[in-house]
Design brief:
Blueprint (H helix, E strand, L loop, with lengths): L1 H8 L7 E2 L4 E2 L1 H16 L8 E4 L4 H13 L3 E3 L6 H11 L3 E4 L2 H6 L4 E3 L6 E4 L14 E5 L7 E5 L1 H15 L6 E3 L7 H14 L2 E3 L8 E2 L3 E2 L1 H11 L3 E4 L1 H10 L12 E4 L6 H10 L3 E7 L4 E5 L12 E2 L4 E4 L4 E5 L15 E10 L5 E6 L4 E2 L5 E2 L2 H8 L4 E7 L6 E7 L6 H12 L8 E6 L18 H7 L1 H6 L7
Parallel strand pairs: 1-11, 3-4, 3-5, 10-11, 14-15, 15-16, 26-27
Antiparallel strand pairs: 1-2, 5-7, 6-7, 8-9, 12-13, 16-17, 17-18, 19-20, 20-21, 21-22, 23-24, 25-26
Amino acid sequence: MVIQNLLDSLPGTAVLLTDGRREFDRAALMQRLADLCAVLRARARPEAPVGILADNSPDWLMVDLATQVLGLTLVPLPLFFTPQQWMHVIAESGVGALFCADPAQGAALGFDAVLAVDGPLALCETRRSPHAVNLTGVQKLTFTSGTTSAPKGVCLSAARQWEVATALREGVAPLGLERHLCLLPFAVLLENIAGPYTALLSGATTICPPLAETGMQGASGFDPVACLEAIARYAPHSITLVPQMLQALVAASAPDDPRIASLRFVAVGGGKMPPQLLAAARARGFPVYEGYGLSECASVVALNLPGAERDGSVGRPLAHRRVAIAGDGEILVEGCAAHYLGQPVQDGPWLATGDLGHLDADGFLFVDGRKKDILITGYGRNVSPEWPEAALLGSGAIAQAIVVGEGQPWLGALLVPARPGLTLVQLQEAVDRANAQLPDYAQLRRWRAVPPFTPAAGLLTSNGRLRRAAIHTTHANEIASLFDQPEL
């Protein structure tokens, strides 16, 4: 059993988990797991899936481990989901009990019987019989990348998750990472596996304070100064970011900033990395390594690593994965056994990712864009929107961008300024800098400034990817205005 082997191998005296106030070594962790297992067994339906709706903390991770000890399914409910989305997840997954910080919140979701449990999280059980769902072999049911109202569930075994963490541990072993600071929500699979799981396998310390302490503000805000202060305070060796967070941290820091002096490994994933951002981050002193992954593959598939990195690529596939490129340029990943809730396990050994890319002669993977997002202009030119979007994001003045123009004579964009107070002239200068890197058919002729795209509004995924269809619907008028007059 994977979890038992892990627990048996943990060092005896090292601090394994901390939120900055409480510390858990192996003995404290084992005692906490025993307590959690006891209360989970005491439920009226002890075999039912367990939900968790909570901020980052050692307790979140210990609930995760306890469900593995008992062979239960854990269903994380992201804090940035709407109540309607939470109810959809609960109904679809058959959750019978919910860990949450506020019992009143649990009661509002139908979990009104509170079980006695020590610690900051309450375990609330529903009095009604939940929907019966076949989750045999599923340890984690992660809901991601669905529509605004109905996210879809990816079924993951414990073995597949620890397989990824093991490959990551082997890849970063030369760096001697001993302290990982968690900056992304644990409901996001990338942080869950690339952070605490990998750290536990290494006997390292996982630092997981509340998200507000590390700069996360509500569903979508991010305070880079607070994040830099947290990095300085906890002196981690590693962190995991999405590109937008890195962009904000670069803008808020100085070259050789002492606040990031402890960092040895900064993993970035979840979206295309503009080359200019990568260069700017390294100039500031961030040891950045870009990677690529999918929830269907239990997160990380490829990652740049010390001594095996190539700018512009997302690294070589990890040791446990094989990647190939289909005839139409789609990236294929072997051995994922992808499985969505309510659907059979995929047929065949290869998962079609929906991403376009290529492998170079040395085996480094390059991601060129989403297959379904390819734009065909009115002149018949095929353009992956991620290409000009990356150029826009690398300009330094633009935080978010979506490029549009299917069937149109030119391309346009909706832009979110990187900071308040930027003038239209400054934004146009940023567009001009981006256009200077692009051929004529991929340049932006018109643009509109819009408010930030957020997960709370259903316009952004949890790891920072644009929900293009939702943005097109929400901003239909702005997009139409980009093409409603002939170009002069």
